[in-house]
Specification:
The protein has 469 residues and is an alpha+beta fold. 42% of the residues lie in helices and 19% in strands. It has a domain of 112 residues: Immunoglobulin-like, CATH 2.60.40.
């Protein structure tokens, strides 16, 4: 083959590689799109309200849980176990199905590192030469780089304050948060939380870096228990590329004598956690797939697919597709459906008012003309968004009357009120000569202007004295 023909073929390969890369959307571009969507949602959700309530808010100040525009009081937190089960089962399911995909595509730690390292240090300030060599740290001996580093820290400090505030908005709603911050002397606890969170984010993102993912985050330890050979992860195809490491992790050579891997180690240079994916599945791998992008660019020049892909070890070995539906994933889907069903069912039990009934220390009292009175402590709470007048009635007994309170009372939205309630009867309810008789009663409390919508029923006991009394 002549030199001209060889040069022509090389040029043709390069043109084909360029054409392929133009059509190809790298994983890091897809990740940036996902990061942008997650960031917009996270910043927007605390400000979105339905009927005056938030989409999600766990307010320790107001002692309420807001879920999809419905406010649940502390006495109604029967939803919390379902939310916790949903969270943990969701984590287990995603990990079993797609490995550590959360770490690479949704974790705030990863998003913050990308913002600081790729956007601020590399794109904005040019402190780093490029995106594709994360092993090479900037030369801090230069005055120019020191100034850029200081500016990068300053920019991230401002963003950390926003990120910390955004986190707190899920516990202190923005409409209260900004009022409290305007009066820091009266809200030192909130201000302390804000500053501590901001300082942690600054120290974590700038100094701890991906070491948080490798050494601190417990999720990397959990994943090793949940993985199997069908779990989707970042996989190096050693059948094509050749084996680089022994089973004990010892590196045999940079470029294998047999295989398509050319030993360029682009996949190693670009890795944010400083691992070699060719070594196999490792706890440090975030599934960010930047190594797959790097390998794709190299192998495109040889008109071959990437040696690193997002698939499962079993799919690589069998040359078949990923087995998404298997016993573990189907079991998790079933459990998630049960929990979601329970959550939907229990959320339908929301009451627009609460009523707790407690008896006083005095069991009963006997008045002239054989009138028997029982006293109770009723705790009413209006959990609706509007003010209402409330009263109550005895549903199942016409022979027991309400002595006090003798008229309805107003409860503002979200307000609580304690009432001493006296019930009495002048009828003979029992003729037991040996012991007092408990009479089962059902109390129904309601809002006068929405009796069919805002009402609850509670059971209690009316004690009637033995015959000699």
């Amino acid at each position: 083959m002549s030199v001209e023909e060889n040069s022509s073929q090389t040029s043709s390969k390069r043109e084909k590689a360029k054409a392929y890369l133009k059509r190809w959307l790298p994983y890091y571009d897809k990740r940036y799109i996902v990061f942008a969507i997650i960031s917009i949602i996270s910043l927007s959700v605390p400000f979105i309200r339905i009927n005056g309530n938030h989409i999600f808010l766990l307010s320790f100040d107001h002692k309420q849980l807001h879920l999809m525009g419905v406010a649940f009081d502390m006495q109604e937190l029967y939803l919390m176990p379902f939310l916790l089960m949903l969270m943990f089962l969701g984590i287990f399911f995603i990990t079993t199905l797609a490995g550590r995909v959360w770490c690479g595509w949704g974790c705030p730690q990863t998003i913050f590192r990308v913002i600081y390292r790729d956007l601020i240090e590399t794109k904005l300030l040019g402190l780093r030469s490029n995106f594709f060599n994360k092993q090479k740290e900037p030369d801090m001996s230069k005055i120019e780089n020191k100034l850029k580093k200081a500016l990068a820290i300053l920019i991230w400090s401002a963003l950390s304050l926003v990120a910390a505030s955004n986190f707190l908005w899920y516990f202190v709603p923005p409409e209260d948060f900004f009022v409290y911050i305007a009066n820091p002397g009266e809200h030192t606890v909130l201000l302390t939380f804000l500053l501590v969170l901001s300082l942690f984010l600054i120290f974590d993102v700038i100094f701890i870096k991906e070491n948080f993912c490798v050494y601190i985050c417990p999720y990397s330890r959990v994943q090793s228990v949940l993985y199997d050979n069908n779990t989707i992860m970042t996989v190096y195809d050693y059948n094509r590329g050749g084996e680089i490491y022994k089973d004990n992790g010892e590196k045999m050579w940079k470029k294998p004598p047999e295989g398509e891997c050319i030993g360029c180690e682009s996949c190693v240079k670009v890795c944010p956690t400083h691992i070699d994916i060719r070594k196999g599945m490792q706890l440090e791998c975030l599934n960010c797939l930047e190594c797959a992008d790097a390998c794709t660019k190299v192998m495109a020049a040889f008109e071959k697919p990437s040696l690193i892909s997002w698939t499962s070890p079993d799919a690589i070995n069998t040359k078949k597709g990923v087995k998404y539906f298997r016993f573990a994933t189907i079991a998790y889907i079933g459990a998630l459906l049960i929990v979601v069903g329970g959550l939907i069912f229990m959320s339908g039990k929301k009451e627009n008012m609460l009523l707790n009934i407690n008896r006083t220390t005095e069991l009963y009292s006997v008045k002239p003309n054989n009138i028997v009175e029982n006293s109770y402590v009723f705790l009413f709470q209006n959990t609706d968004n509007s003010d209402h007048e409330f009263y109550f009635e005895i549903v199942n007994r016409d022979d027991i009357k309400i002595v006090r309170p003798d008229e309805p009372f107003l409860l503002e939205a979200g307000a609580k009120r304690k009432k001493i309630v006296t019930l009495s009867t002048d009828k003979v309810l029992a003729e037991d000569s040996r012991k007092d008789t408990p009479i089962h009663i059902v109390i129904r409390s309601y809002a006068l202007d929405a009796k069919d919508v805002i009402s609850v029923e509670r059971e209690s006991v009316f004690f009637y004295p033995r015959k000699e009394k």
